[in-house]
Amino acid sequence: MTARKRATSPATSRSPVRPAAGSAARAGTSATKPAAAPGPTHVALLRALNVGGTSVLPMADLKAVFEKAGAREVKTLQAAGNVWFAAADVPACIAKVRAALAKRMKREPAIMVESLDALRALVRAKPFGAAPRPEGTTWYVAFLDRAPAALPRLPHLLPTGDVTYRTLIGRALCISVVPLPGNLSVDNVNPEKFAGVSATVRNWNTVLRLVGEQP
After folding, report:
1. 85 and 92 in contact (C-beta within 8 Å)?
2. Residues of 3-36 as b/e, b for ≥16 C-beta within 10 angstroms?
3. Whole-model pTM?
4. Which of 62, 88, 109 is the last residue of a domain?
5. Where are the alpha helices (DSSP H) in 38-190?
6. Residue spans of alpha helices (H) in 106-197
7. Which strands make up the sheet holding 42-46, listed edge to edge?
8. Same domain, 67 and 98
9. Do 73 and 104 fall within a single domain?
10. 204 near 134, Cβ under 8 Å?
């Protein structure tokens, strides 16, 4: 007796369906698309660098010190020691920078570090008000190395009548200076004496440049 030939199922007899070449390529491209390179996340502000002919350090050398300490995306602004950077471990990176600069400059420099997010928040807060800067007035920000234990009530006008400590946002002490005739009022700006902690001062225009708000 001859065995019956079993019918082959149409489903099993078909060749496997292959994806179109274009869709496979698109899928592969999507899967392997590189992530955008992150930019700087922090700003280091060095105190008393390249001021009055002391603590002289070219910015190219400062950039190299940060890169050797493990920082990436390193850029500098002006000669006063403003450094954009990113690092996997920011405190460890800054500790290496301090050690390297202390060896080179024979003293350990004070370095205040702020995140770019904190600086952007400072600018958005409009610490000097929404009105344009009055003619003849200069705005400064003193970046403190830590929160002060106590401050006089703000805003606080100095007895000299030319310097007003306006507000404290985070560790940024905002200062307004209106020069008086025959008086170099910037000499009266002494946030370290006022706040009782180490500080470095930047012009408000420099702060705006650091966050990309001013060319």
Report:
1. no
2. eeeeeeeeeeeeeeeeeeeeeeeeeeeeeeeeee
3. 0.79
4. 109
5. 59-68, 90-105, 116-124
6. 116-124, 191-195
7. 72-77, 82-86, 42-46, 111-115
8. yes
9. yes
10. no
Q: Which amino acid is at 190?
A: N
Q: Is 86 domain-assigned?
A: yes
DSSP string, 16-66: PPPPPHHHHHHHHHHHHPPPPPP---EEEEESS-SBTTBS---HHHHHHHH
**Residue numbers of the domain that contains 162:** 121-210
* Rounded Cα gap, residues 201 and 71, in angstroms: 24
> Among 198, 45, 37, which residue's Cα sits nearest to residue 122?
45
**Cβ(99)–Cβ(65) under 8 Å?**
no
Per-residue pLDDT of 168-204, as tens digits, reads 999 999 999 998 876 656 667 899 999 999 999 999 9
The structure tokens listed for 135 are: 């003619």
List the pLDDT tens digit at each of the 215 positions of the chain: 444 444 444 444 444 445 454 444 444 444 554 454 578 999 999 997 876 666 788 999 999 999 999 999 999 999 889 999 999 999 999 999 999 999 998 888 899 999 999 999 999 999 999 999 999 899 999 999 999 999 999 999 999 888 999 999 999 999 999 988 766 566 678 999 999 999 999 999 999 999 998 75
